[in-house]
Each structure stands twice: as structure tokens, then as C-alpha cells.
Amino acid sequence: MKNVVVIGSGISGLSISRMLKEVCKIEILEKDKSFGGLIKCERIGGNLFHRVGGHVFNSRNQIVLDWFWSHFDKEKEFIKAKRNAKILMNSNLIGYPIENYISQLPEPQLKAIVNELLDKLSNDKTNVENYSNFKDFLIGNFGEELYKIYFGPYNTKLWNTDLASVPLEWLDGKLPMPKLREVLLSNILKSEESNMVHSSFYYPCRDGSQFIVNRLSEDLSINCSYNVKSIEVISSNLLSINDGDKIVDSIVYCGDVRQLHKIIKIDDSALNQAMTNVANLISNGTSNVLCETDENDISWLYLPEDKFKAHRIIYTGNFSDTNNEGTSRKTCVVEFSGKQDQLDMINELKLLPGNLAPLSFNYEANSYIIQNQNTRKDIAILKSLLKSYGIFLLGRFAEWEYYNMDKCIEAAMELKESNFFSK
Ligand SMILES: Cc1cc2nc3c(=O)[nH]c(=O)nc-3n(C[C@H](O)[C@H](O)[C@H](O)COP(=O)(O)OP(=O)(O)OC[C@H]3O[C@@H](n4cnc5c(N)ncnc54)[C@H](O)[C@@H]3O)c2cc1C
After folding, report:
1. Measuring CA to CA, how many Å separate 335 from each of 158, 243, 401?
2. Nearest protein CA to atom 53 of ligand 1, as residue
3. Rounded mean pLDDT of 155-162?
4. For the ranges 71-75, 112-116, 250-254, which has the lowest average pLDDT?
5. What InterPro entries does the entry give (predicted)?
6. CB distance 37 to ligand 1 below 6 Å
């Protein structure tokens, strides 16, 4: 059996470790004091706090679903829910996605949007190939008015970057790409969203995504509070971690690819150049506040307006009653882009609906990855150079892909299928 170290205990590291544990000797090294990465949660006075987001699970890939459900009892351990997302605009709740609910907007906006969409119908350029950046794509697909009132402000807040600088390859396959005819028909037929991966989703009956972490980590050897600071080659087939502390045949790295140039010490100019090329990629952090809230039946509330600093509220207390064990009210997570001052966030909560009362705060520096025009090519080159040393990249920040949990599992499956580990 090969000795393999997996660096990082998020969903990517846990998944690949489970997939390889029958054919390799696996140890997971995690720099944090507890495992789970972005999907770990904690209890605050009995209430469940998703420290990042409000993780729900689904996948379009049947093989991923089969693998996932082989670890859980879908009927007994999970709740299946329908997404009930809304957008708060001018103090009104509008359906989500907004393009399917333009009939709920005030008449002047509605008229402007419909006129633009009708003009575009004769010249339907909804395909990604027609645009070079995200901003042009959004305006080209939905028109200036919808861009002005929703897509522009919301996405600028979320990504904290100039949308004109975002290449479209990044979003291809990640966003539903509606056709204009479908948009207009959806409004007339009042059809509900259905083509999004999370239009219905699964959520654990207890402990949210921490439940997933706990189950997937069973029987795995995980070494927490272990920061991998150096990786060297000591012979043609062996790798040394942290100055000889661990000697292994192979490494799966699920950490931040931008840090690799500081960690990997191999005398290979092409590799060093490839690591330097990705060292300055940009990511966006999120500040999250666990709050008590008044009751509602919403799952996600989007906040595009500039008057709010927060960009969405995730009503995690509605996902499972067991998330609200420390309060007679419900709980939710208010998400802000970037690092926010705690006092500013407390003041902001007063502007938002639901009589929000803060219970706990978290800042996560690495939440959203931002690709540039070269990222995919640069990562592919780096991957192929690292492979020759037995080092593999896996996960959202190692591959710099906008992965959800299911995509991390799918990427782990592809890595396992590469057969490197069974030789
Ligand atoms: C706001 C938000 C909401 C989301 N909502 C959903 C959702 O509802 N559903 C869904 O499916 N997905 C969702 N996602 C995506 C999901 O969170 C990610 O796809 C997934 O958690 C990424 O897992 P990962 O293992 O690749 O990375 P991570 O979870 O970041 O794990 C990497 C681990 O590596 C460790 N590490 C890094 N460097 C080192 C080192 N040098 N030594 C040791 N350890 C190291 C880190 O501490 C970390 O634990 C959301 C993401 C965000 C940001």
C-alpha cells in the first residue's frame, strides 16, 4: 500500500480519503484545531452556527449522489426541502430568480425590462461565447434595467470586484443560462425555478453540515493542529513533509494553491514558475453573523440594494428545527462580503427585516475564489508538473474552481480514477 498524506480535512480531503482508504495508507493533516474546513459548524448556546454559508446538499451527478448516500440514511437522517428564495427590493419580496418574476416588479421597471427582452428576442445572443466578461453577459442576457436594479449591484457586492474583469469561462456550467423565450414564458406561466442544482436540497436532520463532517471522518486518521509548512523530494519516489516529520509516497493537497510556492521546496524552475503564476490569485472573504429572527418560510433572502452592506440572509433555522435549540425564536445567518467591523454589522442588522438579534460572529478570509483569464490554464500546467512528483491538487482552493460540495466529491472521484494510487 502507498503511504498518502491528504492535506486539509474539508469535504475534498475527507472524500478522497474515504475513497482511497481501502487501497492506501491515509493520514489527513489539518492545520485548524478541528476538522471540516468550510463546512464545519458549531453550537452557540444550543443554536447551530454555520460559520460559513448555510451548507445544503444536492447534485446533478448520479454517481456522486450514490456515493454520498452510501454514507447516510437519506430518509432517516436528512430532510428534503424545496428552495424558497426571495429578493428584497424596495421593501417588497420578489421571487427568485428575478428574471422569472419580473411581473412582481413595479410597472415602470416591468415595462422597461419587457421592452428590452423583446428587443433582444430578435437577436438572441444568450450564449456564453458571445461575451468576453460577466458584466457584458448579464447585460446582454437580461438587459440594462435588470442589470441596474439587480444583477449589477448584487454581484458586485458578492464578488467585491469589477464584473467587467470577470471572465465567463469561470461561470460556465455554474449558473443556469436561461433563454429569453424561457424567461418570458416563465413570467407568463408563473413557473417556479427548477433548473438550479439547489432548487430542492437535502439537509441533515441534526447538526447541519457538521453531521456530514462527522460521518465522513469516521475511521479516518486525522491529525489536527498540524500545519504543513514544507514539502521536499528526498528520493525519486519519496516526499518529506515538515523537514522529515512524515515521509510519504504521495500527497493530495486540498489547501490554498496560492501558498504552494512557500511550501514546496523542489529545485525545478518550471514548477517554481508555475507556482508563482498562481500565487497572486484573488479571493473574497465573508463575515457571517448568527442571529435570532422572527419566523418566516424563506430559505435564502437576497439583498441586492446598495443601502444594505449584507448581501444575503440564510434562514438556517428553517432548514431544521434542531438548529434553534437555544432560542424560542428562529435562527439565521446574515452574510456580508469581505471583513466587516462588528459594530457596523450590528448597526446594519437593525436595517434588515426580522428583528434580528446577533448571537455570534465569524470571519472567513477564503470563501469565494475569483478566476482570471489564465487561471484554468495555469492550474492545469501546475497540476501536470506536480503529478510527476506524486503531488495532486484537489478542491475549491487547490484547483481554484467554484466548487460546491458535490463538485468537490466529483473531483475526488476523478482523482481516484486516475489510478495513480492503486499502483
Ligand atoms: C458562503 C458559502 C456558501 C456555500 N454554500 C454551499 C452549499 O450550500 N452547498 C454546497 O454544496 N456548497 C456550498 N459552498 C461550497 C463549499 O463550501 C465548498 O465547495 C467546500 O466546502 C470546499 O471544500 P474543500 O475541502 O475543497 O476546502 P476547505 O473546506 O477550505 O478545506 C481545506 C482545508 O485545508 C486546510 N489546510 C489548508 N492549508 C493547510 C496546510 N498547509 N496544512 C494543513 N491543513 C491545511 C484548511 O484548514 C481547511 O480545513 C459554499 C461556499 C461558501 C463560501
Report:
1. 10, 40, 21
2. 367
3. 85
4. 112-116
5. FAD/NAD-bd_sf
6. yes
